[in-house]
Write a structure and sequence with these properties.
alpha/beta; Rossmann fold; globular; 204 residues; 21% strand; binds guanosine-5'-monophosphate; 41% helix; four-stranded mixed beta sheet; 8 helices; single chain
């Protein structure tokens, strides 16, 4: 970077993690619906939930299809979560960052660790990560069981995984302890707006 006047900036790559039921997907979607960020649509081998749409919520793939993407080296990051595969394709994320479009990635702790340690210079300049914590473990259990999107077996697995995931929050640059929906969104948005102004984001 030179010290010339900044003329454009790169996009912010906002990597968001947190246990199921922390409210992270809602926050990411809200920011995307407001037109502030592009939501990175992941690939997954899990079955769609009621109301989920292929190409909007996820790219729902079979396991062989997913593995083909792995073999071709097309994933930016991927992980095995709650007995299913999840991954982000490279092309969409980097193309947006280069154009100055902010991208939000709603991914698990393993995927976030891969992005955090990747040696791509563009990614490192754009990267920020945030962990969304529930107000308490009891509140998380209550939110998860009230959601009604999983059967008991899957719910138990998610609860067990949630307790493991929760321990990872110190690896992140930011931690948002969830309170009210309105306040969470305000704070989430404030982080994005501040990150846009970081000197590392500018190109002259
Ligand atoms: P869900 O099945 O509830 O939609 O997502 C389960 C978990 O997978 C969540 O923690 C979510 O953030 C994570 N996840 C979603 N997409 C991706 C992805 O592309 N990569 C990784 N590593 N995790 C993902």
């Amino acid at each position: 970077m030179t010290n010339d006047f900044p003329t454009q900036r790169l996009g912010v790559l906002m990597v968001v993690s947190g246990p199921s039921g922390s409210g992270k997907t809602t926050l990411c979607r809200q920011l995307a619906d407001m037109g502030e960020v592009a939501y990175s649509i992941s690939c997954t081998t899990r079955a769609p939930r009621a109301g989920e749409v292929h190409g909007r919520d996820y790219f729902f793939l079979t396991e062989p299809e997913f593995k083909e993407h792995i073999e071709r080296g097309e994933f930016f990051e991927h992980a095995h979560v709650h007995n299913n595969y999840y991954g982000t394709l490279k092309t969409y994320v980097k193309a947006n960052l280069e154009r100055g479009v902010d991208v939000v990635m709603d991914i698990d702790i393993q995927g976030a660790a891969q992005v955090r340690t990747c040696d791509d210079e563009l990614v490192q300049r754009c990267f920020v990560d945030i962990f969304i914590l529930p107000p308490s473990v009891d509140a998380l259990k209550e939110r998860l069981s009230q959601r009604g999107t999983e059967d008991q077996e899957k719910l138990n697995l998610r609860l067990t995984n949630a307790l493991t995931e929760l321990k990872e929050w110190p690896q992140y640059q930011y931690a948002l302890i969830s309170g009210s929906r309105e306040l969470d969104l305000e704070r989430f948005k404030a982080l994005l707006f501040a990150e846009r102004m970081k000197v590392a984001r500018y190109v002259s």
